[in-house]
Amino acid sequence: MGDYEVIETTPYNIRIEKTSLKPLAVDGINGTFYNLRGNEIYGLAMQDGKEIETNSYVTNFEGLKRGVIYFDGNKLHHAMIYNAKTEIKDYIKWAISGISLYPIYNPKAEGFVGAYADVLRATKHTALGFKGNKVYLIASSKSLTLDNFRKGLLNSKLAFDGLINLDGGGSTQMNFGGKKLISSTRSLNHCVRLLNL
After folding, report:
1. Is pTM, for the whole model, over 0.85?
2. Coil, helix or strand for 148?
3. Nearest Cα residue to 127 out of 157, 152, 94
4. 57: burial class by Cβ within 10 Å (0-12, 13-18, 19+)?
5. Is 145's pLDDT higher than 70?
């Protein structure tokens, strides 16, 4: 789809999982933000009601509300939260955080200022979005600012009830059908995995 690679699936076909510190080797896309040196997730990443890593039930370490997409086993949700354990009352089949792109878009309020504003620059970006019971795994095939990445998606043939930006830059990776659609040599902490094709 133009500057975007898009995989459409269902929420039942997604699993948030660790990647053994290697480039993406399964079908899916990279996950949320993490520290390359300490290999620590800097966002929310949960599967089957549990964080996949210590503290990955919060969206950041500053106490700010950030964009989250989660699946309760029946329905997909977009929420602005900090702590999934205290702010989400539903069962969490899976959840992941990033920067909210729709229906709310305010990176500054989510703390992406100063050194953290680097994620807004022109680079490759990855997103997760949904409409009804359809989930879209999205990656840009060329460098775009986050604002242009968002505008391109909102002006595309896709429609969204919720949309978040995941980690980008060198972390942007997408595999489908065993093929690397967007590749990188960067080792990943975790991913949004497609279970079945």
Report:
1. yes
2. helix
3. 152
4. buried
5. yes
